[in-house]
User: Fold this.
Amino acid sequence: MAMTPRLDGKVAVVTGAASGIGLVTVERFVEEGARVVAADLREDAGRALEARFPGSVRFARCDVTKLPELKAAVDLAADAFGGLDVLFSNAGSGGLPGGVGAFDPEGWDATYALLVRSVAAGAAYALPHLRRRGGGSIVSTASIAGLQAGWGPLCYSSAKAAVIHWTRTAAAELAPERIRVNAICPGFIATGIFGHSLGLSDADAQALAGTVAQRSGAANPIGRSGRPEDIAEAAVYLSSDAAGFITGTHVVVDGGITVGPRHAWDRDAPGPIGQVLGLSRAQIDAMRAAKSGG
Ligand SMILES: NC(=O)c1ccc[n+]([C@@H]2O[C@H](COP(=O)([O-])OP(=O)(O)OC[C@H]3O[C@@H](n4cnc5c(N)ncnc54)[C@H](O)[C@@H]3O)[C@@H](O)[C@H]2O)c1
Assistant:
């Protein structure tokens, strides 16, 4: 017996829909019965996506940092599909590179406009539509970089932290209106973002994503690389009525990379006591065995 699609009859807007996480999320949303406005800067990839799903996907060419374009993309959901139930604010890039000393006002503002302001503005534009439906779901792509230091550049990391706390605060405000607000914190996901952020062509960026897919499995406890599908699955769940009691939180989808330091899950990584004492794990194990008489 076929299962009922989890987003049956819902209408969604997905930003950053032409590549990576957004692209796979559009595919999954459609499989789950949703109709989707796919918003992205990239016209060719967006039009190709629309052509693959006639009647289910409308492409909106949209730079989410240009607010009239973002509003038009959100409003297209109502014009094309009669309403809006889900906003997935996902567009992003690595933003301003470097640390404290690399501060640059234009780069900082542009990064915040892309990663934070688009989330806040998109929700504001979605609000009247969601109210008309009597509720809805807002999901934003944050990052493990917003939870811990060391996973991204300074500006990106603080912007993603802002998304996580915006999520809590907006969720508190909108809960009485049955509008849920959640974020997803991906770990390393094999997409074009690394190449796109280095200014590579899309073809080269996708090739680099292949390298990430091959290598990143060794970086997390689960032991395989993260895929856009892993994030899309969380987006489907948070957007669905099955997540009706979940709001104001973030779902970490990272293969366990943030559970703790590497030695917590990797027997070959030097542990903290060994590092402090200058002993290998094997030496410590041997000393412990000797102490317990083993
Ligand atoms: N891939 C990862 O490891 C990872 C980890 C944590 C968080 N994220 C986040 O996931 C989200 C999606 O990234 P991805 O990995 O799929 O990267 P990606 O580069 O494959 O896709 C990002 C998409 O966003 C679009 N985009 C960029 N700027 C835009 C703008 N101003 N207006 C409209 N569209 C714009 C790009 O054209 C592209 O299609 C981002 O918010 C990113 O920060 C990714």
Q: What stands out?
A: The CA atoms of residues 263 and 269 lie 5 Å apart. The domain at 11-260 is CATH 3.40.50.720 (Rossmann fold). The longest strand covers residues 179-186. The pocket of nicotinamide-adenine-dinucleotide is lined by residues 15-16, 18-22, 40-42, 62-65, 90-93, 114, 141, 143, 186, 188-189, 191-193, 196 (CB under 6 Å).
